[in-house]
Amino acid sequence: MKQSKMLIPTLREMPSDAQVISHALLVRAGYVRQVSAGIYAYLPLANRVIEKFKSIMREEFDAIGAVELLAPALLTADLWKESGRYDTYGADLYKLKNRDSSDFILGPTHEETMTALVRNEITSYKKLPLNIYQIQPKYRDEKRPRYGLLRGREFIMKDGYSFHANYESLDETYLDYKHAYEAIFTRAGLEFKGIIGDGGAMGGKDSQEFMAITPDRTDLEKWLILDKSIADISEIPASVISDIQNELKNWLIAGEDTIAYSDGSDYAANLEMASTEFVKPTVYTEQIELTKVATPNAKTIDEVSAFLDVPAEQTIKTLLYIADGEPVVILLRGDDELNEVKLTNHLGADFLEPASEADALKIFGATFGSLGPVGLLDTVKIIADRLVETVTNATVGANEDGFHYQNANLARDYQVAEFVDLRTAKEGETAPDGGGKLKFARGIEIGHIFKLGTRYSESMGANVLDENGKAKPIIMGSYGIGVSRMLSAILEQFARINVEKTFKGDYKFSWSMNFPKGLAPYDVHVIPVNVKDEVATALSSEIVATLTSKGLQVLEDDRNERAGVKFADSDLIGLPVRVTVGKKAADRIVEVKIRATGDTLEVNVDDLAETLSILSK
């Protein structure tokens, strides 16, 4: 393909509104352009990457018997009203009416649509299991779209759905998808982890997220590609290294989630779901008499701890939430933070929100900062984190503004309905399997698989007759991959800083893309330095023809531009191999540059195809 025929609008400078490097490079290198907030056009280069990734997915899904179809993106709201999600999904749902005032939505996901299709077509267990998927744009009205393709209002997603007569069949397909996702992300060249995930608005119970790990910005050798004139990073002056480090710090670390993983086992989970090892104490501590003390102007745990000179872990914080309209009291050790996802999942609540001060006054007779479990009516449900059970002679709110109790003890002074894991795990704590310590990393969600069970089939009446002729709800699974955000995930891991030494002996550096093999929009970038040189242009055409015949995809920069412009654009575009046809064209000698390493070598055109074949192994 001739570059003069392509739409590749590169920019000389980084876009000022970009906060993460993937967004900046995708815009600067002419891969995407924003049409409106959170909505992007995928220009030819980006589209080619996406299509290559789709091919990888289709090959792996074919292998597990998944069949591709295409459902509409404009959906009747009636199906979502059947499932109950029309009212519970939230403000992210695009709602609209047609000319007849009927309610429609733009699909953010397609559980209801696929359930309805199967409900209307399949009535017997003999036609199950069924495994279908699609790749299409999805729509979510994000309040604050940001980070380019990572958080948008329109995005491309692969969503798959499986339908089963029994849970054993669902387990098999769920495992098939897990292995398929691992194969897909491995072929894409990503560093990723499969972690315990939260089903969220999808309604799933068992789920696993696949997270692309955001690389460590302190490992310079991982980020730098050195010019052939620089033998080692130690040659680069300290002032230049400092400038590079500052450049890395200029960009936010992408990733909407924190991953907690064990340094001594395979345990990994989204921080929202991460747990820690819990050992119930067996040592008895003598209980001291309950005492009420004044704590004027001390409302937070830190203020109370300082005023009474007690450690935060010796206090118990009391929180009040409203879950589906009902109050629930939560107890946590003072040095812990509530994990609302864990609480929501435990309660099975559709709506969970912190209570108002008016609610607190009604239930406790006090305002926030003085709430406690002592003396609460039996009608109020109290749930405590497991670590609360380890605290004896605790400091708690006295349910009177400006007062606290000291030496409050479980059973004697207050009651708890149940103990569950409600706290947010902390880095350095022991993993729940006891196999190591928790470490934290930022990650970008690229895939998610769910065991939905009968969440949608029951609410929408999707049943099949079993072997005994009895109607039973279909059992479902749901499987998603963020296709467009894969572009950003790849670049967050594969963007590199090129460091060069100029003829004057100065050092300069610049960002460039560095796509993994198999996903780059083209395999080779052929650059005739001077398009007015007939020998060079003829040799370039010969190279393109030869490499194309060998199955390589080639982009030829046939533009009448200065060499510097061509090389700068080539670095931005980031194709794996650059072939420069320059002063030695008459001798059939070209320069080959390998982007991933920065290595260059001169090659006779007659040996070029074989050389590239060897280098690609």
Going by CATH, the homologous superfamily of the domain at 291-420 would be YbaK/aminoacyl-tRNA synthetase-associated domain
Largest beta-sheet details: 9 strands, mixed
Calculate the mean pLDDT score and round it: 92
**Portion in strands:** 25-35%
* CATH-assigned fold name of the domain at 291-420: YbaK protein
Question: How would you sum up this structure, described in words?
Answer:
By secondary structure, this protein is an alpha+beta fold. Among the domains are: 291-420, YbaK protein (Alpha-Beta Complex), CATH 3.90.960; 522-615, Anticodon-binding domain (Rossmann fold). Strands 3, 7, 8, 9, 10, 12, 13, 22 and 25 form a 9-stranded mixed beta sheet that branches. A 5-stranded mixed beta sheet has the order 17-15-16-18-21. The protein has a 5-stranded mixed beta sheet with strand order 29-28-30-31-32, sandwiched between helices. β30 (577-581) and β31 (589-594) form a beta hairpin. α1 (21-28) packs across α13 (483-494) and α2 crosses α13. It is globular and about 95 Å long. The two termini are 24 Å apart.
